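ok here's AAA+ ATPase domain-containing protein, seq below lol
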Amino acid sequence: MAGNPDASKASSQMEQQESTMSRDVSLFLPLMIGLITSKVTTIDIVINAISEVIKYLVSPFMDHVSYLVYYKKNANDLREQMARLGELKADVQRSIDAAHMRGEVIKIVVENWLTRANEMQSKEMILNNTLEQNKGCLQGGCSMHYQVGKNAKQMIEQVKELLIEGRTFTTMLDPTPLPPSLETMQTLDFQVYDSTKLAMDQIMEALKREHVNMVGVYGLGGVGKTTLMKQMAKILERDGFFNHVVMVTVSQVPAWTKIQGEIAKNLGLKFTDDSLSVRARRLVDRLKGEKRILIVLDDLWKPLNLLEQIGIPYGNNCKIVLTTRLLEVCIQMETQFNVEVKVLLEGDAWILFKRAVGELIENDNTLHSVAKQIVRECGGLPLAIVIIGRALRAKDQSVWNDAASELMKMSSSPPDIQGMHEKVFRSIELSYNYLASEATKFCFLLCCMFPKDSSISENDLLPYVVGEGVFRDIASLYEVRNKLHTHMERLKGSCLLVDDCRRKGFVRMHDVIRDVSIWIASKEGHDFVVKSGRGLTQFQDRDEELGKCKRLSLMQNKITNLPNLLNCSQLVTLSLRDNNCLRKIPDAFFQGMKSLKTLDLEQTDICLIPSSLSSLTNLRVLLLSKYYCPHPLDVSLLGKLKKLQILDVNDSNVEKLPEEIGGLSNLKSLNLGDNKGLTIAPNILSRLSLLEELYLENSFHEWEMEGQSSEEDKARSSSSSKAVACLSEVASLSALSLTTLEIWVSNIKRWSAINIPIHWEKLTRFTVVLGSGVDRDEYYCNTNVFFSGVFIPQFSDRERMYLLERAERLGFSNCPGLKYILSVGARGLNNLRYLFVYDCDDIDEYILSCTTSFVVDDEAKDVSQIAFSRLERLELRGLPRLKAISNSRGPLPLPSRGGGGGGGGGFNNLRVLYVCACSILLTIIPSHLLAKLPNLEELCVGDCHGAIEVFNSKGLEEGQKATMSKLKQLKLDQLTSLRTIWEGIVSPLSLMNLEYIFLYDLRLKILFPLAMAQRLQQLKKLKIRFCEEMVEIMSMDEGNEDRVQGISSSSTTLHYLNPIFGNLRVLHLSDCGSLKHILPMSLAQGLIQLEELSITWCSNLEEIIVNDRDCNDDIQEKKTIFPRLRYLQLFKLPNLSMMSKGVLLCRHYYCWPSLETLKVWRCSNLKFLPVNLEMATKLRRIKVEEEWFNKLEWPEHDDDHQTDEDNKQFHLHRLRDRGVKLNAGQIILQQEHDIPVRFFAKEVVPLALITSSPPLLLTR
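and the structure came out like this:
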């Protein structure tokens, strides 16, 4: 090839080598002839010698010939090997991401391997470019083909070595979901009033000050400090003022392990060390790696050493806000700024009261005056106002008058509760008194037995309610559950309890309300003694206190020893839950508790049940679950407790269910779950005739089955030396009283063998696991069915199908024979909310059918019925033959009459769709399905290497164009054949709410067509990684979407009513080797909200912004690019020379007045700091590579006799004067656990895309 010096040189070398070989042949020929004429006895030796010589001469020559002849094959083989390397590199990268999130350090060998893999990808790209550029070129073609063939062959061997080495780094990702975001925090009745606005403004102003690292927020209990800070936390994180905001409750007796755990959980950090000091050091390292983080410590009662006791290195990037009732705590903590949250003004108090009681009060003349009086008596305290308002809602005038009168009175015996205003106490007490029934009041008081800030579920309260006999006229546990739920709803309606935003189905009690409830519960008649969460190490036996005690709570302490005998003859309820230091209970301990009805020993460490427990003949409830002792627990003694109604020994290492348990004739609930070695003998369960709830999941599973059909089952039965319980025993219970069942049957391998004679119609809650078993996750519902390793040729039997029709959650894993999930039965699968299908190789064509059919008299009947009308979440993984998600191509189904949220049909309620490893699926969401997903919020697609498009809107009718309008998250991962994200017309409302896009390992040259990009008005985060062929993020031409070159001279400047990506706050790009620029100027000027820009491992990047317009047009306007940019990171960009070549003189473009942190590493071609230092007044941190920093060129200042060193020192002095911290070093990034190329696994990989595998060894 003309003009190619490398190719000419290679050709010359080849000619020299051929000449050398010819010379070698001429030297060896005479020798060979002489040997042939020698004695016959040496013929064999001669022949061998000749063979070796020819092999020596010919083999290298043929290698060189093959480079030329097979250059295409070598290039294709290399491409295949590189594809494997790309996949392996992606796996290793994910492991590194997850490890960084957990605060681990990556081995140098892993980092070096990743660098070599990146370099190999760059070499392969250069090779392919050479081949493309010279396609059809005659001159010099042979020499170029030879060189390509040779390089490709050599690189194949190098890639194979990388593959072998890389496979030793087995992947590990952390599937544990992070807690809900601050956006989901419940802020009860929050409204910005004058007093709250003043406090919020003061807090905000304090946090903006660079030198303020700790802010104190104080005020009366019930004034709204916690609610205000929850709202502030949302705002601060949403607006990007902090990258992370974590809020934890400290309380009066701080539980250090719990506090550390809460902070770590929010950061994705896992602790494996029991030592508080070790955990603290790991937390310090993790927090130092955050850019800007705010930690809110709620409800402080005494000063703490944050660094030593918890591990919070406040200062620089980490700020603290603490809330407390006491200003003295702020002073002792040496807060730099304190804000008092004051009571509401009278006008604001009236507005809040109207919201609580109802707006009708404004026009009710009979109640208006007394309402005003009540508001005045509440003293402007929000908690008091809301609670009284809810208590008086829909009450008559006499109740209102009584409330006003009671509030005006002084409390007969006001409690001495520190930091609580008497008006708050009176309002809570009054609200309690107005509760409709004694049962509701008692349920409220039971909640105070749990530690402060506890999450409490109805399942937690049920044993206490049953033990106390709160609902004496109800015998059925099912009815008790329903009644308890009704009372809990009443308590939430009165604001005495609130929903826990962190855990669905749980409630919390405000700390002020809990203080009042403990005071009420301790009075005569109730006789509660509550010492939960006090950090007690010894049991305090005070006769005067315990002599009349009826309810004693010692939950969540560190008690190690109990007295030998405790005389509490009136004690009805005792809770020692969560005392995991308690290893032994004295043998006579329970002898003085003849009245005891409820005993809670959950999460203790006892290894032996004391003999005195058998004397508790009145005991109704015994909870022994989750005890920590490794030795088997013998529960035969419990057979003497004939009145026992609830027995819970879940996860307690019970190996054998003794015969004595069968004698518990009053037992209604038995929990044996998670006892993995448990065996159950025949005729024990069947004797429990009153049993309503039986929990056996992840426990005993090899059941005897009547009429066993398979030889395997018969062989297993005959080989077993012990007789075991039969499924017919469970069936007999289901015919009597059973309403709840959790069961695992592992010895069922075929759908046709599923003959479980259970009366499913009587069950209200069930979990049935058939096959090899599954792990629990967060999506459990009331009715769950799972198949794992079960052969399912077809669904046809109506009796078996009834089980599926009842299911809210249905899962299939590794089920051969399964071809599709057909909605069978007249009702369809319209109870189904969650569907998971994993690793089913026989799934063919499609997986779901949106019409129903069933078998009647051996003939299939079609029914015009809607299927999957309630389906919310669909996860598909490892389905290699899947061609479509659904076979439905007709019009949208009619609204369902039968039930199913929203009244829509088809997939009207689907909100989350995960698709992974479906290799021949071409279109993820085709047009016929696109219009049927109106509520889809999250779409994640990964490892679908055959997919050519994600969305296809072709063929939609005009009225169906508003598609994907509720989609918020889009994650595309390793779609190597993808041609476009959206095929067809993008309607104006499509993707209008999309906030987060993550793209990983796509082979697109242009990611977004212009029409699609224009719809992304709400996009806040865009993260792109390993898109090596991408040359532009978006197309700038409406009519030429396939253009792959740089910005053309004819490209028109973009002017739109709403800037494209106008709400974008975070832009990350990594490993995009074909990018030469990131954005055109016309687009960059619209990114006014951008706060974080990170560009890493883009080897060909020359400039950040390409100038597609005349910057002189804007000089007078002084338009600034990225005016809110706070964080800029440039990492390993060897060809980056400047931010924009075309606007070198327009320095106002890059003044970046909001920039706080600048990081530059391995950008050797960049000669200037990429920021106008004079105008970046908020810049506080610069992290750079020392060698590069010392070679920088600096702007000239006014001195005429300046040198380069003078310029440098001048600017450095200016930076120091402004308090900028400069850190220059060769390994600065590793030292601070801040490898910038990473995106954390929690933001990248959904649960459905994570496959379990051994851990990666990451620590040095």
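fwiw The mean pLDDT is 77. kinda neat tbh
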